């Protein structure tokens, strides 16, 4: 059973947003705004982002990696024009992984030269938009993409800066679906098979491409420097070969993201300063050993910046005990959202910290399964946690660390509408994304012509 703090009223400070507090009346506030007040205005489910939490994590990451220019926010974690502007204000760069993510970033006024474009398959329109916008870098992920991008850049009479994505064969000890650096997967060029070297040579020789560096990504929810250091060690061997055989010193080593965050009270907090120090030291030492200039180390955090900044608030609905054998019962609490706004528990087995945010609780804790409202037996948010017995229908329940990969992966399953998203700062709440409505759903319907 996923056990939380013995006092269910406490908010673990390393899990909940940095500006979350519980008032004397039992209500929880973030940045001075009471969560029940947000619910009264915007309904449930509702996602609440602590703007200063996000900004402070941007600054922490920038300091750890010796400059904001070395930190690229991975927008796939959570993207809106408001968040893009926060990233811009903090001086970070931005990663996008689709054409529409690129268009959102540009619509928000983000400088194209600070955008790096990812994607294991990019169609011609996507590549044309990249070149036309003059994005900072396109990460090459397939041989045909390299050829097509070079042709497009030539047609537009431009040069496009690129990275080559390499799979260095490093196991970051993460879930199979979010491990991205082993050989048998869809991303990048294999280092062991020689594909990475050939891609580097082809990019170097391409008339309208400028090869600036190598990119890799070792996985997600990584809490130490070991996987990054091993990947860097292998990639620097490639840097040295490029120097020796092509006469070029590549300036940038992009080691991707994947930095972990605590989801539960007993999880450890990420020591990003320590990881950055260990990683940069290892890169500098290896480069010196190989006799090459140490490259600029670039990282791409997403979850580590935006994940802990948000909570999702639900209203508790059904409360019932279900007999599971002759002498055992399981308590089920249902909320008015679920897998449509947070698919991660069903997809990855992700776990979450849940607290009542509308009042104090004082009941005896009992094993409880927190489920969603969807017509799906797998719609389980927390399979087993210690929940006070006095939690009941109508209470407001908050799940922490829902800022990353929840809204971007949301759906309209059972014709649910996506939740409202609100940002809070200095005692004020502002709507970031409005709640979808039934009119939004019906707006896609096309009625047949009747003659």
Summarize the topology.
Blueprint: E1 20-22, E2 28-30, E3 33-34, H1 35-42, E4 46-50, H2 51-64, E5 72-74, H3 81-89, E6 93-96, H4 99-107, E7 115-117, H5 124-133, E8 137-140, H6 143-155, E9 160-167, E10 189-190, H7 195-205, E11 209-215, H8 226-246, E12 252-254, H9 272-290, E13 296-298, H10 303-306, E14 310-325, E15 328-335, H11 344-348, E16 354-356, E17 365-371, E18 380-388, E19 396-400, E20 420-425, E21 428-433, H12 438-442
Parallel strand pairs: 4-20, 5-6, 6-7, 7-8, 8-9, 9-10, 9-11, 11-12, 12-13, 15-17
Antiparallel strand pairs: 1-2, 2-3, 4-14, 14-15, 14-19, 16-19, 17-18, 20-21
Helix pairs in contact: 2-9, 5-6, 8-9
Domain Orn/DAP/Arg decarboxylase 2 N-terminal: 52-306
Pathway: Amino-acid biosynthesis; L-lysine biosynthesis via DAP pathway; L-lysine from DL-2,6-diaminopimelate: step 1/1
Binding site for substrate: 303, 344, 348, 376, 405
